[in-house]
Design a protein that fits this description.
GO terms for molecular function: DNA binding; DNA-binding transcription factor activity. One of its GO terms (biological process) is negative regulation of DNA-templated transcription. This is IclR family transcriptional regulator. The protein has nine helices and nine strands. The strands form two sheets. It has a six-stranded antiparallel beta sheet, with helices on both faces. Strands 1-3-2 form a three-stranded antiparallel beta sheet. A hairpin with a 6-residue loop joins strand 7 and strand 8 (about 195-205). The chain folds into two domains: about 10-70, Arc Repressor Mutant, subunit A; about 75-240, Beta-Lactamase (2-Layer Sandwich), CATH 3.30.450. It is an alpha+beta fold. It is globular and about 55 Å long.
Length: about 250
């Protein structure tokens, strides 16, 4: 129920407060948080105290940041927990073979949501981080997830974001068809000019993407082929571990 002149509910405001933090701003003063979340300062102070009391926020000097209770609650999400648990040994294998950062992601709210990442010393630049979101049209992860989405989901996404997708990928339909034929997506220099992102979908028994497994390698290196092979093997192992046997 709405209980403010603007018509937003207490829950709306709480979500905006929690959503105001990101990798670039992990902590904020309450005044800055109120501005960023578009919540009146008096209301922000009251809601922040409630969130602190429940452990959803934590104090850090004169600022507040997301609390450990959020991490605890998020890790109870059974589908994500199962996926990460099954995927981890396969991600470690890929990390050892390719010797580059390795990540697991899903398509959520029309963005790529990174669930897990294994770092590697000396690896190339990689903008993915756990719980971070990345644009579909600029990542190999996004293209792989989109290419292997059910047809209604793909068409719905393109209806909402077709202009942005086509501006980055003028021959988008052909590109997605190529990804479906080859079983992987690769993008050179879209986020970091010196890198290539490589992604392989984790498929269910219908051939639809449950998630995506990805690495970022130096652009023009000889790592692309072994990366694809390692990712394919790992993605199929994850599917089987989840009880899904994707079609050949």
């Amino acid at each position: 129920m709405a209980n403010s002149p603007s018509g937003d509910s207490v829950l709306d405001r709480l979500v905006r407060i929690l959503d105001a933090f990101d990798a670039g701003t992990p902590s904020l003063t309450v005044s800055a948080l109120a501005r960023r979340a578009d919540v009146p300062r008096a209301s922000a102070y009251r809601l922040v105290e409630e969130l602190l009391r429940h452990g959803l926020l934590a104090r850090e000097g004169g600022e507040v940041r997301l609390g450990l209770r959020l991490w605890e609650l998020a890790n109870r999400a059974s589908s994500t927990l199962d996926l990460r648990r099954v995927a981890m040994p396969f991600m470690e294998d890929v990390n050892q073979v390719v010797r580059q950062n390795t990540q697991l992601a899903v398509l959520h709210d029309d963005e790529v949501l990174v669930l897990e990442r294994l770092s590697r010393p000396g690896s190339v630049a990689n903008q993915a981080y756990v719980a971070g979101r990345m644009p579909v049209h600029l990542t190999s992860m996004g293209l792989a997830l989109l290419a292997f989405s059910p047809a209604p989901a793909l068409e719905g996404y393109l209806e909402r974001h077709g202009e942005r997708m086509r501006s980055a990928h003028p021959d988008l339909r052909r590109e997605l068809a190529h990804i479906r034929r080859t079983g992987y997506a690769s993008l050179e220099g879209f986020i970091d000019t010196d890198t290539t992102g490589v992604s392989v979908p984790v498929l269910d028994r219908r051939g639809h993407a449950l998630a995506v497994l990805a690495v970022v390698v130096p652009r023009g290196s000889n790592l692309l082929r072994p990366a694809v092979m390692a990712l394919r093997t790992a993605a199929r192992g994850i599917s089987r571990g989840l009880g899904e046997i994707p079609p050949d």
